Amino acid sequence: MSEATPSPATSPQWHLARRAPATASATVRPVFAGEPVDALAPDFAAAVGFDGSIGQVLPVPGLGRTEVLVGVGPRAGLDATVLRRGMALVARAVSVPSLAVLVPDGLPAAVSVRAVVEGLMLGGYRFTRHKTDAPEPLLHRVDIVVGDVLNDTDDTGAAGDCRAALAVAQVLASAVLLARDLVNEPGGELTPDAFVERAWAMAADAGLECEIWDAQRMADEGLGGLLGVGRGSPRPPRLVHLTHRPDEPAGSVALVGKGVTFDAGGLSLKPTAQMLDMKADMAGAAAVLAAVSALAVLDCPLRVDAWLPLTENTLSADPVRVGDVLRLRSGKTVEIRNADAEGRLILADALALAAESSPDAIVDIATLTDAAAVALGREVAAVMGNSPELAVAVQRAAARAGERVWPLPLPAPYRAQLTSAVADLVNYTTGVRHGTALLAGLFLKEFVPDAIPWAHLDIQGVAVADADDGEWVRGGTGFGVRTLVELLMAPLPVPR
Fold first, then answer.
1. Which of 61, 189, 336, 472 is 20 to 30 Å apart from 2, CA to CA?
2. pLDDT tens, 257-316?
């Protein structure tokens, strides 16, 4: 893996250590539930209610430095997710220049190192670009104490695993923070052209190929869905195509991310309350952009093509009308039944483009339907598709990443509900209250050849957090970035 230095604005200096340095402002000590703590008298622990349960953080001032106790629950239940969550809570509870973090017994040291870095970076994130006199981050150094593991000088041993985990964690967490920055940016700032500028700059830094399509190119290429949605905005739509191309690729994957930089609903105008988070309707595109930003430095062995259709869905002099018929890239026609069901239209064009190079798999990610959030809540994303093997691979990648994904079906009999009297398909089934996440998935399936394994991630419920919760902070979560990277760094589950 190549060297990578995360932005100093979002990450402190990281070090592996045998013991806590005397200069550390505070020492973080994980505590198992039901086990005594040397730094805490039992009577005091009982008085303050600290028993090592998950989610508890207790700073204990002492001579020279503070001892920060963080509950990680029963010893038998310790895993990377628990430790990551604990470190995120520490990042918000303790404001000091430097930390020494003791890794707990029970996990491989490398697993603990990655969880500590991701937890502190993600939990300590704040979007302050538009704040007046926002304070600079105070934490500038973290020593992760792994003890005698560092006596191993062989990079193939435990010490080498820890160093690799430290580097990977910084890259992944920095990528998540990039996605969060994009999602949190107001829609008036992050227009399609502004998103293009960010993508272009990132591609140059990361060594990716980057191609930008303007409206004329889209018209020439027959992207009727993206152009149709973009008609309602004075700011023209754009399409970004990014490519990570290793010298000898082990396979190929295409990623597609929904990029509606602000969704007012078009002619099917949303009420104000439903419009409040619609600057985040490009969270899928943000996740894809952030994920591919990490691929070169992580030496991803696959060729990866990323397609980002970018547009606003607003209301101007000539928006797409309910009842209009659009012809999409695939040649299929779609009757517009709801101008606020726009995401599937722009994804359909991008999926058709992605399929034309016959990749080994296609994965799209989108804030697509409220129905997915109704079904799975605000902490679990939905996955659907035409390949059970790929869906399982996405689930397993999410589990390794510390994100939660659950499969939903695409029942073939439901396809009849997408029938139009005047076109090949409708984009929305008026009057249907149930199963609409599945109908959206079935609509997208029409634009992916059956021979290409495809998975669709609906992240509507998990793209934005209403409050701080573990490694998530209020605002954009960056959900999907780590899942996509984990998926791309593992062997393809669906060789063809």
1. 472
2. 999 999 999 999 999 999 999 999 999 999 999 999 999 999 999 999 999 999 999 998
| Residue 270 known to be catalytic | yes
Range of the domain at 48: 13-149+157-176
8 falls within a domain: no
Single out the catalytic residue among 75, 92, 245, 270: 270
Name the E strands within 146-258: 209-213, 238-244, 252-257
Cα–Cα separations (whole angstroms), residue 69 to 41, 64, 278: 13, 16, 39
DSSP-based helix, strand, coil % in the chain, nearest 5: 35, 20, 45
Is the entire prediction scored with pTM above 0.85?
Answer: yes
Q: How much is the pLDDT for 422?
A: 98
How many domains, in total, are found in the chain? 2
- Whether 94 and 227 map to the same domain: the answer is no
What pLDDT, on a 0 to 100 scale, did the predictor assign at position 156?
67
Whole-number Å distance between alpha carbons of 57 and 72: 10
CATH for 45 = 3.40.220.10
Judgement on whether residues 232 and 289 belong to the same structural domain of the protein: yes
Write down the residue that tokens 């040649």 correspond to.
Answer: 331
For residue 152, the model assigns a pLDDT of 64
- Among residues 84, 344, 445, 482, the one annotated as catalytic is 344
Asked if pLDDT for residue 171 goes beyond 80, the answer is yes
